Amino acid sequence: MIIIGITGTLGAGKGTVVDYLVKEKGFTHFSVRGYLAEVITARGEQVNRDTLTHTANELRKEHGPAYIIEELYRIAQSGGKDCIIESIRTPGEIESLRKQKGFILLAVDADLKTRYRRIALRKSETDNISFETFKSNEEREMHSDDPNKQNLAECIRQADHVINNNDGLKELHNQIEQVISYLPTQNP
Q1: Which residues contact 163 (CB under 8 A, 6 or more apart)?
Q2: What pLDDT was estimated at residue 188?
Q3: Residue at 110 is within a domain
Q4: pTM, full prediction
């Protein structure tokens, strides 16, 4: 079983990479955001960037830095298929997944203004924010000494492959193909 962990900056194109791997390569997708949204909804709270961040940090503090990823891995393992776990945000999550055979970490990044334009276009409930708020959110999630909080800079640093998604879809797909050419043969 191949496990691709996806990390990266806000609006870099992580979801587009996931979509390509699911549609073109048959990977199964497990989403941290989806998992957290279920927890938040079950609590009767509104899903937004603040509740997503707060809930993730709370669960990590209560159960350990890799809790969410370990839960998703457990679910993925029961299916036994090549999968993607998106979005890795702490070094503890990486450390846990590195213990699993077949794991690689892929980071996706792009320049700040390009990423902001992308989130403004997709108009999800967590993306309807000003450029200043976007920058502030990213700064908050980029570095932390607390193992239970996001540290995207360190996650990107630990990536096996980094995709720079500043160009079009064709270039992005070419970069994804390059990365997967290094992977062992996938399950049918």
Answers
A1: 8, 13, 17, 106, 107, 108, 109, 172, 175, 176, 179
A2: 41
A3: yes
A4: 0.87
Residue 37, domain CATH: 3.40.50.300
79 C-beta neighbours (distance < 10 Å), count: 11
Mean pLDDT by 10 residues, the chain (188 residues): 94 95 96 95 92 92 93 90 93 94 94 92 74 89 87 96 95 95 65
Inside any domain, residue 136: yes
- Tally of structural domains, the chain: 1
Tell me phi and psi for residue 100, to 5 degrees: -95, 135
Q: Which two tokens stand for residue 185?
A: 């043969």
50 inside domain? yes
Q: What is the largest CA-CA distance in the chain?
A: 45
Q: Give the domain range for residue 136.
A: 3-180
Residue 162's H or E segment, with its range, is: strand 161-164
Q: Is residue 185 part of a domain?
A: no
Strands 3-8 and 103-109: parallel
